[in-house]
Structures are given as structure tokens and as C-alpha cells.
Specification:
The chain is of the alpha/beta class and about 260 residues long. It has helices at about 20-25, 45-50, 70, 95-105, 180-185, 215-220, 225-235, 240-250, and strands spanning about 5-10, 30-35, 60, 80-85, 90, 115, 120-125, 130-135, 145-150, 150-160, 165-170, 180, 195, 255. A hairpin with a 5-residue loop joins strand 7 and strand 8 (about 130-135). The model has no long low-confidence stretch (mean pLDDT about 90).
Length: about 260
């Protein structure tokens, strides 16, 4: 049995402080990269174009709407392929990803639809990058995005961004429940699939809010977060992203070593 293809898709907007590290750490995990910029006004797009030149197979796309990113990957439905979604604030352990790639290629997760990994939602980063503090998943939500596209025949309908929304049409034997929750059974220290989620850290040289609203808050089918943010602004209060605070600040704050995440990939 041949090894499955791994396709990486990165969707970013104003992430020039972190995007290079995020992509370089994950670069060797995927056979092909689809790099998408949604209207960045800082240095993100030039960085993406420069990084694409260093990858064996990469394309760069500038999007008018983040939903266009899903159109770039839904064509892989039915193929022997895994699709890996990467954000500009997600710093993966590169050595762990190399091991995970071997496990995917060996067929360990062939019967799964989705694989969820360990995550630390970072609130503090040491100036020398030796340590980080934050909240672990679990009990927080894991937001890793790794999908087995051989499990579906199609993934159509409205997706606010790649791999979020719409309606996957599953092949016999698969459904939404077939998830491998690695973060629930594997300790952070020994995980092959672990990510520093820098959602509470500065990400752009433009100085935009670190805990900015995410795409699903802005473009998802529910508008309740949009109304909440608008009311906060009218009241003169912070419109900080409620989604992130509710999902990514649970349990006890912990501190872990981070040197392997910032060792140059």
C-alpha cells in the first residue's frame, strides 16, 4: 500500500512576526503547500512568497475572502491524502511532526477521519524563547487541523475558511465521530503532534491586538459574536476576542520548555 500524500494549507492575515517560524517548523511535514494570504497589510505576503521559494512544492494565493481557501483543498476529497491546516500563530514541534509523518505514512490513522493533537495556548513567552506559559488542551480545546480526505467523497457547502463548516460526505465506515484524540491520551512531553498556539501573543508588526477575533467569529454562520463586539465598541469597552478566552483559558496555567520549538526547524 502506497503512502498517503500530505497537503499543507496555510491561511494567514497580518502575521509577519510569526509566520516564517510557523511555516518552517512544519515545512517538511507536507509534500505540498498551499499558502493563502487574506488581505495582509504588513509584511506577511512578501514573507510567504520568499518562503515558498524554499519549499519543493508550494503555491501562494491572495484571497478576497477566507472561504476561498476551502475551494483550494476540497478537490482532494476521495484521494489518498491528508490535509493539514496551519495558521500563522501555530508553532509546531518540528521533530514531533517528522515522527507523526512516519506514522501517517505507515497507515496508523487510516481508519480515522480527524486527528487532534496536544496544544498549549500561550499567554507568556520568555524573551530567549526557552520557556512558555499557557493553558493546555485538555482541558482547553485542541484546534489542530489534520483530516483524512480518503474518508470522504466531497466537502461542499459554505465554509468560512478551509476545513471549517460545509458538509463532508463520508464514505462507508466513516463519520464525524471517527476522531483520534491524541491530546487526551498522550502527555505533552511525549507528544508527536504538539503545538504552541500563540493566540495571545503579538503577531503583526502593525501592532494589532494579539487576541484578535478569529475567522469563524467574523465570517461563520452565527452572528452573535459580531453583535457582541459591536456592543462592546459602542460602550467604549474592549472588543477582545471572547471566543479565545472561553475556549483557550481553561484549567491551570502551566510553564513548559520551548527551546525545541524555536531551534530553526
Amino acid at each position: 500500500m502506497s503512502a498517503p500524500r500530505i497537503v499543507g494549507i496555510m491561511l494567514v492575515r497580518n502575521e509577519d512576526l510569526l509566520v516564517s517560524t510557523a511555516l518552517r517548523n512544519a515545512a517538511s511535514f507536507a509534500d505540498e503547500w498551499i499558502l493563502c494570504d487574506h488581505g495582509s497589510a504588513d509584511g506577511t505576503l512578501p514573507i510567504l512568497r520568499a518562503e515558498a521559494q524554499l519549499l519543493p512544492s508550494a503555491s501562494v494565493h491572495r484571497l478576497r475572502h477566507p472561504s476561498e481557501s476551502h475551494d483550494l483543498v476540497k478537490k482532494f476529497a476521495g484521494e489518498d491524502a491528508w490535509v493539514f491546516g496551519l495558521d500563522g500563530d501555530e508553532i509546531y514541534d518540528p521533530a514531533g511532526l517528522r515522527r507523526l509523518r512516519g506514522r501517517l505514512q505507515a497507515g496508523e490513522f487510516r481508519e480515522d477521519w480527524m486527528v487532534l493533537g496536544n496544544v498549549l495556548h500561550v499567554t507568556k513567552l520568555a524573551t530567549d524563547h526557552s520557556a512558555v506559559s499557557g493553558f493546555l488542551a485538555p482541558p482547553c480545546r485542541s484546534m489542530t487541523k489534520l483530516y483524512n480526505f480518503s474518508a470522504i467523497d466531497s466537502w461542499d457547502g459554505y465554509c468560512a475558511e478551509r476545513l471549517h463548516g460545509g458538509t463532508p460526505r463520508f464514505r462507508p465506515g466513516y463519520d464525524q465521530s471517527r476522531k483520534r484524540n491524541l491530546h487526551e491520551v498522550t502527555p505533552w512531553e511525549s507528544s508527536d503532534f504538539r503545538c504552541l498556539h500563540m493566540c495571545f501573543q503579538p503577531r503583526s508588526s502593525r501592532g494589532s491586538d494579539a487576541a484578535r477575533p478569529n475567522i469563524m467569529e467574523l465570517y461563520g454562520p452565527s452572528r452573535r459574536w459580531s453583535w457582541w463586539r459591536a456592543l462592546r465598541r459602542v460602550s467604549g469597552l474592549s472588543a477582545d476576542a471572547r471566543w479565545k478566552h472561553e475556549r483557550y483559558r481553561r484549567g491551570d496555567e502551566v510553564t513548559v520548555g520551548a527551546a525545541s520549538f524555536f531551534a530553526g526547524g
